[in-house]
Write a structure and sequence with these properties.
Largest sheet: 9 strands, mixed
Strand content: 15-25%
Helix content: 25-40%
Structural class: alpha/beta
Strand order of the largest sheet: 9-8-7-10-6-1-4-5-11
Shape: globular
Oligomer: single chain
Radius of gyration: 22 Å
Distance between the termini: 56 Å
Length: 259
């Protein structure tokens, strides 16, 4: 089986994330770039299946600037077999629609039996890329899975709802996305780190995917009209208990229409 995992390089969530005020695009130099944690969890789902089925091939696919190479190499050190990096200056500022079409083209070129992704990235939080990719590929998709079970012919899992959970399944090939309820990724070992340098990492341009200017002429670049810094946090109201703290607190909440 060939499992392709979609990963994304994002700014470290423990650091301040900023927009470039001149372009309105994410300032990738403002914080350390890392693999999105939800993408790592998607990779762990694939690696656990590979652990139990030795003939499985796990391939990483990502789209982004040259710095994405480091993220892909880390994924290879964790146990993935190969990686595909879509690198093209024309994709800077790509919106969800363009991103989905490019990723679908990369998947078509690489081949797959199952595609696994995170449910939403921590920088964009669109939450629709896996479904949009499945639409491009004409595949069934199971999204926001809290657990995943893979067999040779189908994939199944549990999906949370507002009123409980449902069990879903579909035949392969298919696209699935996972939530933070799936297991955390393993740590790379020394052997994995060394072998990652020798594993194949293919770099592709939009042209090599067969997506020339005509295919992308419908737009796909988000245009930010203005940006503004988030205002600094100010001190809140402090209630000191001098026998009437309960009344003061109730009045404060009522003034804010919170009760």
């Amino acid at each position: 089986m060939k499992i392709v995992v979609l990963i994304k390089q994002v700014p470290d969530t423990y650091e301040e994330r900023r927009l470039d005020p001149a372009t309105g695009i994410l300032d990738r130099a403002a914080s350390d770039p890392i693999i999105d944690e939800i993408g790592e969890r998607a990779l762990e789902v694939a690696l656990r299946y590979k652990d139990a089925h030795k003939g499985t091939e796990v391939v990483l696919v990502s789209m982004g600037p040259s710095s994405v190479t480091a993220a892909l190499r880390k994924g290879l050190s964790l146990g993935a077999d190969a990686a595909v990096h879509v690198l093209d200056d024309s994709l800077a500022g790509a919106d969800l629609a363009r991103t989905a079409s490019v990723l679908a083209a990369a998947l078509t070129k690489s081949g797959y039996d199952l595609v696994i992704a995170g449910n939403e990235s921590t920088d964009g939080r669109g939450g629709v890329i896996p479904a949009m990719v499945a639409e491009h590929l004409g595949l069934p998709h199971l999204t926001f899975l809290d657990s995943v079970e893979i067999s040779e012919s189908q994939v199944s899992g549990e999906r949370g709802t507002d009123s409980g959970s449902i069990q879903v399944h579909t035949g392969l090939p298919a696209v699935v996305s996972v939530t933070e309820r799936t297991p955390e990724v393993r740590f790379p070992n020394f052997k994995g780190i060394l072998s990652a340098k020798k594993k194949p990492l293919t770099v592709l341009t939009v042209g090599e995917l067969g997506l020339g200017a005509d295919a992308l002429s419908g737009g796909g670049r988000s245009v930010v009209l203005s940006t503004a810094e988030r205002p600094s946090r100010t001190a809140g109201t402090k209630v000191v208990d001098e026998g009437n703290a309960g009344v003061e607190l109730a009045e404060f909440l009522a003034a804010g229409h919170l009760i």
